[in-house]
Amino acid sequence: MVNFEQIKGFVFDLDGVIADTSVYHSKAWRQLAEELGVTWTDELANNLKGVSRMDSLNLILKAGGKENAYTEDEKEKYAAEKNTNYLNLLKGMDASAILPGIADFMKDLEEHDYKLSLASASKNSPLVLEQLGLAKYFENRVDPATLKHGKPDPEIFARGAEILGLKPEECIGIEDATAGIKSINGAGETSIGIGDPELLHEADINFTDTSKLTLENIKQALG
C-alpha cells in the first residue's frame, strides 16, 4: 500500500457510502412488481442490489414467471416507469439520509485540500447530491453515460482519478460492494471497503460502517 502522505484525492461511490439510496430503489421496484402481479420477497430485493435497471426488471419478471410476457418496448416502458417512481421518492430525501460521519468527513477533506470525485453508475447521482446538500463537494463526477464497462471493470474509478488530474496511486477509492472494490483495485488505487470485512476482504482497508471513515483512521490503517 501507499503511504498516507502520497494521497491527494478520494473517489467515492454513492449508494452505501454517502447515502443509502437502495431503500428508494427497492420501494420503486416493489411498486412496479406489485403492478405486474409479481410477489415481492426479501430474496428478490437482495438480488436487485447493484444490478442495472433492465437486468433488475428481467429478474422481477423471471421471479413471477413472466419473462416472456412482454416485448422489449414494453420492458423499456416499465423500466422508465420505475425510474419515474424512484425520482418521485427521491424528492423526499434530505440531509437526514446522509450516512453517519460522512458530512463531517467531507468537511475534513475539504479543509485539508483533498480533491474529490464521484464514481457512481447512477445517472440520478446529481439529483441525489443536491437533495443531500452535498453537491458542492462533487463538482467532479464521472458521467456514467460515457462508460463502456460497468463495475467490476476498473474504468469508472480510473476515470474518477483522471478527472481530478491525479495518478491512481494518489487516490483512495471508497466502496461498499465487492464489485466496486475490484474496480478500485483494478484501477491501481487504494481501496476502502465499507461493511462486512469478510465480504469485502479484497479491500486494502476495511471499516464496518461510515462512522469510522476519518482521516485519522485512514492514516493509522496505512501506517
Query: How many helices?
Result: 9
Tally of strands? 5
Poorly predicted regions = none
N-to-C series of helices and strands:
EHHHHHEHHEHEEH
Distance between the termini: 9 Å
Rg to the nearest angstrom? 18 Å
Biggest sheet architecture: 5 strands, parallel
Classify the beta-strand content into a percent band: 5-15%
| Structural class category | alpha/beta
Instruction: Label the overall shape.
Output: elongated
> Helicity range of the residues?
40-55%
Task: Please list the strands of the largest sheet in the order they lie side by side.
Answer: 2-1-3-4-5
What would the average pLDDT be, to the nearest integer?
Answer: 94
Please name the defining characteristics of this protein:
single chain, 223 residues, alpha/beta, five-stranded parallel β-sheet, 5 strands, 42% helix
Task: Chart the SSEs and their pairings.
Layout lengths: L8 E4 L9 H14 L6 H6 L5 H11 L8 H19 L11 H10 L3 E4 L6 H8 L22 H8 L8 E5 L2 H10 L2 E5 L10 E3 L7 H8 L1
Parallel strand pairs: 1-2, 1-3, 3-4, 4-5
Helix pairs in contact: 1-4, 3-4, 7-8
Q: What do these coordinates show?
A:
- By secondary structure, this protein is α/β, with parallel strands linked by helices.
- Helix content is 42%, strand content 9%.
- The chain is built from nine helices and five strands; from the N terminus they run βαααααβααβαββα.
- It is elongated and about 55 Å long.
